Amino acid sequence: MKNKKKTLLWEIRNGNSHGPSYLFGTMHVQDQRAFTFLEQAYGRITECDVLALEFDLGEAPVGMDPALIRLPEGKTLPQLIPSKKFQKLRKIFRKVAGLDLNNLQHFSPMVVSNIVNERILSRDMPVSLDEHLWEFARKLGKPVTGIESYREQLAILQQIPLEYQVQALVEMGRNISRHRRQLLRMADMYKEGDIFKLYRAARRSASGLRQLLLYRRNRIMAERIAELASEQRVFCAIGAGHLAGGKGVLRFLKQEGWIVKPG
Q: Which of 78, 136, 256, 263 could form a disulfide with 11 if both were Cys (CB 3.0 to 4.6 A apart)?
């Protein structure tokens, strides 16, 4: 994109739309820095007819699906990670995140990684940014919908090979200081509104799963956002790492004939 303006809020419209709709990049965390652009979001949500999140939080069951959280029957983390590496990881995560892997040995490596990330970042706010926007829209009486469904997101996560998850968890522990710096830097990039750096960070993080976690989802989300915005004014909130880049949602929307500009 030619316009390198640092902003997380983008206006989208075309000749058939009912007025401007908006696309807003979020972080799925409780860190205060993720709430930097909240006032801008409030104003645009109020203008729009509906809020669209990556998935409607009202669809999600209470607690996550055990099939996603837990390892397959009969498997534990100490079985999947060699003993010396496991004990080293246990020591590192206890020091950095206050977590004992012995208490999480039946959990999937992906879930353990997410818990470690949440402990590294601050938890200043009572809920994540996405949930806060969801609650705000509901208080206004605005309908809430999902760009993807909860089942679709679950299916994507279940396609991540267990071997890949184990390798990623071990790599996180081996380079925990670098991982911590990168995670905190991402929160700072978000506070700066730099979607281009966030895109590059998301691409690095997805590594060999970019097609599954980023590119394919970006195209699908762009198509569904275009459909929603053709019918009504919609405020769409998706992870900020999905916005920029040659295979980002903003680029796909432009290719479909939408006018995209900072909002």
A: 263
